[in-house]
């Protein structure tokens, strides 16, 4: 179990991440120019939400009440931010952006699930 200082630091990192993500998702104009290659924005959606899910699980996995609270926010944010973007004259709704975000979220969940199974398998074989 992590100590309280480390837990507090992870809390702060996740909250800052969440604020930055919500800010970038809801600003009238996109904060970055996504024109280096086709569908570059999908890659950034995948990485941003995948990274966010990693931070989220690292921060709240063992704290059930906060896990459910922030988990709900994480799962609503991709589609919610797309609907908010549809209200802006500079941005548009893209289901593919939301799907890329959810793909990042579920990829991290899958990787952590597989990692846990492998670690448990190794520990059981050592007995």
Automatic annotation (TrEMBL):
The chain crosses the membrane at residues 7-24, 44-61, 66-86, 92-114. The keyword Translocase does not apply. The keyword Kinase does not apply. Keywords: Membrane, Transmembrane, Transmembrane helix. This is VanZ-like domain-containing protein. It comes from Marinitoga hydrogenitolerans (strain DSM 16785 / JCM 12826 / AT1271).
């Amino acid at each position: 179990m992590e100590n309280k200082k480390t837990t507090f630091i992870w809390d702060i990192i996740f909250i800052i991440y969440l604020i930055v993500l919500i800010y970038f998702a809801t600003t009238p104009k996109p904060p970055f120019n996504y024109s280096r290659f086709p569908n570059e924005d999908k890659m950034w959606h995948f990485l941003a939400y995948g990274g966010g899910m990693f931070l989220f699980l690292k921060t709240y996995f063992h704290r059930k009440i906060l896990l459910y609270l922030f988990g709900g926010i994480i799962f609503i944010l991709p589609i919610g931010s797309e609907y908010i973007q549809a209200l802006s004259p500079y941005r548009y709704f893209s289901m593919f952006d939301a799907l890329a975000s959810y793909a990042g979220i579920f990829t991290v969940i899958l990787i952590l699930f597989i990692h846990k199974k492998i670690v448990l398998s190794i520990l059981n074989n050592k007995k």
